[in-house]
Design brief:
The protein is mainly beta and 67 residues long. The protein has one helix and three strands; from the N terminus they run E-E-E-H.
Length: 67
């Protein structure tokens, strides 16, 4: 597997590249995963754990940086 990178997008989801697979608590793999994948951070997505763009309507703000 390539290097996995996770990037927190400003006021948006986590962008995950490198081909990891997302599984549920029973280790069942979610279908339809591409590269990159976008994981919800706002908690409002109807398609959790994936982002569906609802953060924009919800006014989600997250501008943290590593440091």
């Amino acid at each position: 597997m390539a290097d996995v990178n996770i990037r927190a997008l400003k006021n948006g989801p986590f962008e995950v590249t490198g081909g990891p697979k997302v599984t549920d608590q029973k280790r069942n793999e979610y279908t339809g995963q591409g590269d990159p994948i976008y994981l919800c951070r706002c908690g409002q997505s109807a398609n959790k754990p994936f982002c569906d763009g609802t953060h924009t309507k919800a006014g989600f703000k997250a501008e943290e940086t590593a440091g």
